[in-house]
Amino acid sequence: MSNKEMTKINIFYTPDSIILGDLTEKVVENETHHLVLCYPKITEQEIKEITKIITHNRNHYLKHLTVNEIIDIIARAAEKWTNPSYHLRKIAEKAVPAVTGYDADQFSLELKNFIRLFRKKELKRFVNTELGQSGAMLDDFQPNLSGGFSKFYGPDLIFQIFSGNVPGIQLWTLIMGLLVKSPTLGKTSFVEPIMPALFVQTLAEIDPKLANTIAILPWHSGGKFEARCLNLADTIVVCGGKEAVASVKSKTPLNKKILSYGYKIGLAIVGRETLTPEYYAQVIKDLAEDIATYDQQSCLAPQSIFIERGGAITPQEFASILSNELNNYQIKYPRAPIHESDKIAIEKMRQEAEITSIKNGATSVFRSDNSTAWTIILHNLHNNIGFSASPLNRSIHIFVVNDLTDLPSVLIPYQQYLQSAGIAISPNRLFSLADMLGKVGVNRMSALGKMNHVSSGWHHDGRFNLLDLVRVTDIEQSLEFSSEKFDPDVE
Question: Rg of the chain's alpha carbons, rounded to an integer?
């Protein structure tokens, strides 16, 4: 350990009025770093006290801020993270790769892109897209088009169960809670517990009173402890896999609002007009980036690619070039270590494809040498298009289609799992294809190379973000007019 850099990190945040007992330490090591992750073992009584305090702090401070004031605080925190010399960013760049296994250079690059979603102009656009009037309806009653006035109210307490598959993604829903003026009790995963705690520490540097409306705590899922939190909050936000989301839903009382972000499958679509000598190299390079970024752990990443026949390169050539690109990514940004069960799933995918290849001669397997670092399964069957999820970890299916208009019939059975599509196509076909995909459940379409990078106003899972959190109170026009007769200065 003497040759390794030692870093001690608090992977929790509680209001400064909370007095905690001894901290538990979890040690994580890689080739260069020795990390000590510190967190408290919280009791049910302490959770009750913490939620009482963050709710009190919200009622006495956060709800009196305007939305623009909240945006300014969050944006100032984000600006700190855009500075490579910022001390908490430097800690994250050491600690997150060590804990998750993601390549350090890739994490630094993705962090720089992601944190810019929370600058002032992006936050203003996000709020205005969903709530209009720059969020003024969260500040005061505003006139509405039908006459009368309306005001939005955020939840009294949000319990957020964060996923740990993609570093930093937890900040999205955490910031959503602040924008609707709600306190948050956040449960982090030990898979990646670092970014939420560090970002709230940044908020505390700028505005301690605002940070004191948030508590971030890691603990293992399940048991009476989690049930207690589900009962204390009036709104629950849960992000995770199918089993995790289903488990939380089954335990949540019926009188609670629950927003869930669960398992989704991304896909990529490549039109024949983009597979020309001047375009295909960049198209394939962009696809490789979408596949390799965080090893497809994001629900935004593609698991299947559909390419249209008739391009300047054959499907075999397409798959071969993509395999070279994925191999280059493995050299530049090595895949994170994976569990044995994930390796078995990838080997099973390869073996099944090889057996199918013997039967039909139209299936091909492209694979990394002596490892499961990347896998491509090419399905080149005429008049028999498929669609498949993959074991992730840079494993992808390619399906060849005669025409992109054939896609809706293939995708309809998977409608509930569809989310993002990365597309390379000419403008004269874009909107007709987008309409076809929208009808079968795809709710986000982006350029290739941008599948893992959402815009500030995107609709997660095809829903609203802030609007789904708030409730609205209306003053009808009849009351407005009726109240005038009680004004003693009016005849």
Answer: 25
Beta bridge partners of 35: 7, 28
Residue located via tokens 């694979």: 367
Backbone phi and psi for residue 95, each to the nearest 5 degrees, phi listed first: -80, -45
Classified as helix, coil or strand, 69 is helix
User: 425: Cβ–Cβ under 8 A, 6 or more apart, which residues?
Assistant: 269, 270, 271, 273, 274, 404, 433
Q: pLDDT tens across 343-353, in order?
A: 999 999 999 99
CB-CB contact of 419 with 264 (8 Å): yes
Token duo for residue 375? 């896998």
Q: Strand, coil or helix: what is 405? A: helix
Amino acid at 248: V
For residue 448, CA distances in Å to 243, 272, 321, 443 come to 30, 15, 16, 16
**The amino acid at 48:** K
Q: Answer whether 186's CB lies under 8 Å from 214's CB.
A: yes
CA 99 from chain centre, in angstroms, equals 18
What is the model's pTM? Answer: 0.93
CB 345 within 8 A of CB 296: no
Q: Locate tokens 């992750």: which residue?
A: 37
| Residues β-bridged to residue 304 | 267, 397
Strand, helix or coil at 393? Answer: coil
**DSSP states of 16-48:** TT----PEEEEEEE-SSEEEEEEEE---HHHHH
Distance, CA of 154 to CA of 138 (rounded, Å): 8
Reference 117, options 85, 82, 149; nearest CA is: 82
Q: Contact 433/423 with Cβ under 8 angstroms? A: yes
The count of C-alpha atoms lying within 13 angstroms of the C-alpha of 151, restricted to the half-sphere facing its C-beta, is 8
Interatomic CA distance for residues 340 and 392, integer angstroms:
14
Taking the C-alpha atoms of residue 351 and residue 357, their distance in angstroms, rounded to an integer, is 10
Q: Which two three-digit tokens encode residue 152?
A: 């939005």
Beta strands in 16-157 (DSSP E): 23-29, 33-40, 142-143, 149-153
CA nearest to 421, candidates 275, 315, 206, 271: 271
Alpha helices, H only, 271-426: 280-292, 315-332, 340-360, 407-411
Residues 397, 302: Cα–Cα separation, whole Å: 9
Band (21; pLDDT cuts 50, 70, 90) = confident
Mean pLDDT of the residues in the chain: 94
Give the sign of the dihedral formed by CA 330, CA 331, CA 333, CA 334. Answer: positive
The pLDDT tens digits for 360-388 are 989 999 999 999 999 999 999 887 788 99
- Cβ neighbours around 373 below 10 Å, total: 22
Measured in whole angstroms, how far is the alpha carbon of residue 354 from the centre of its chain? Answer: 34
